[in-house]
Design the sequence.
């Protein structure tokens, strides 16, 4: 596994990439757990959550990094963790955009996520073929399967 954390740049051409999309603010660091789950896989993991809060980058730069890397990824893994006060509106927007584009996506929603039913209903309409997972482990497994199947043979854009 190769690991790219914002603001490090990933350029398509080597290993296919999986983008870890989902909550950052007000959420546990599920991205670190997901990245470890990819272990020895031949994949580049793109993580928008910066581990160093001591070197913040401007909001516009962070959003631009996420946009570029969402489009460079072969697969986008969405995880909506349980959160007491965050519905993760940007992640919901990104899910809608990539579900509509036909991007290879793996989607997981914690059973206690505040807007779980919204995600399930919207995806059942937009992408009825998708299975929505309820554990991070199953969601990572689904992303891994997309990469292995070759459905995500390169960068999405």
Sequence:
């Amino acid at each position: 596994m190769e690991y790219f954390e914002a603001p490090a740049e990933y350029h398509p051409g080597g290993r296919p990439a999986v983008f870890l999309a989902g909550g950052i603010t007000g959420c546990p660091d599920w991205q670190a757990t997901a990245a470890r789950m990819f272990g020895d896989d031949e994949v580049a993991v793109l993580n928008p959550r910066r581990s160093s809060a001591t070197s913040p980058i401007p909001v516009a730069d962070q959003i631009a990094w996420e946009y570029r890397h969402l489009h460079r990824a072969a697969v986008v893994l969405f995880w909506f963790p349980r959160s007491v006060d965050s519905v993760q509106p940007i992640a919901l927007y990104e899910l809608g955009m990539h579900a509509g584009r036909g991007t290879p996506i793996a989607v997981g929603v914690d059973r206690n996520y505040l807007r779980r039913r919204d995600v399930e209903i919207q995806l059942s309409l937009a992408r009825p073929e998708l299975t929505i997972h309820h554990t991070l482990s199953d969601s990572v497994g689904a992303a891994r399967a997309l990469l292995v199947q070759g459905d995500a043979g390169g960068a999405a854009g």
